[in-house]
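Please complete every field before forwarding. Incomplete forms are returned to the sender.

SECTION A: IDENTIFIERS
Entry label: holo-241
Bound molecule: zinc ion
Molecule representation: SMILES string

SECTION B: INPUTS
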Amino acid sequence: MIITFLFDFFFPRECIICGELLENGSTKNKALCCSCLEIFPPAYRLPDSGDHCRICSRELVSEKEICAICRERKYLFSCNISLWDYRNKFVRKAIHEYKFKSKKHASWFFAETIFKLYNDNFSNIPVIPAPCSRSRIEKYGWDHMRHICKILSRKYGISVFFLFKKRKTRQQKELDYEKRQTELRGRIILLRKNAAACLKCSETVILLDDVFTTGATAGYCSELLINNGFKNIIILTIALD
Ligand SMILES: [Zn+2]
Ligand SMILES: [Zn+2]
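SECTION C: PREDICTED COMPLEX
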């Protein structure tokens, strides 16, 4: 208690949406002030099979079951589940502040929400963070998804395996799906020893990433996993773009 108080006193934390200082005491799990928490959208439940693509979970327009993009790309993962919609400005801001402004205390908020979804829908399925590139680590000094995974493991007891390494890549934001695929090939490496240890626990794994955009990273990581004996890959992302 006293440690929390002193920590908050010396390292005051801000709300990641409005920037207001969070009240002292028990702020460890908090990233949003009360007002922002009220306007922040509730996290997704699993998509209804009727009106969402059963692979990427985007809303269907006129298609049935699987959207046109997923039909064309033939991903090797079974589905993507996202907590929030990236089009929501508060969601975008929260992820941006966490990822690019290094508001690391938001990791507790994301980890708690991921755990709730995990706990309601899965059990004993290992979680694997998507690889973070060397260039990102050099620029920002930390791996944001690894950070969340450590909380999932230490606080919530979920098995986490670090299976990927990623060499330097070009900024992928502007690249389309095909170009991203080419860029990733040979730059994401599966750590075989860790993969073998993970496979002993389960042939189904959850790959955790921040934003599902084109599905290129999820698709390529799934390909590496399937080629190394895994049978079922579920993608879990903080937001769907
Ligand atoms: Zn706020
Ligand atoms: Zn789809």
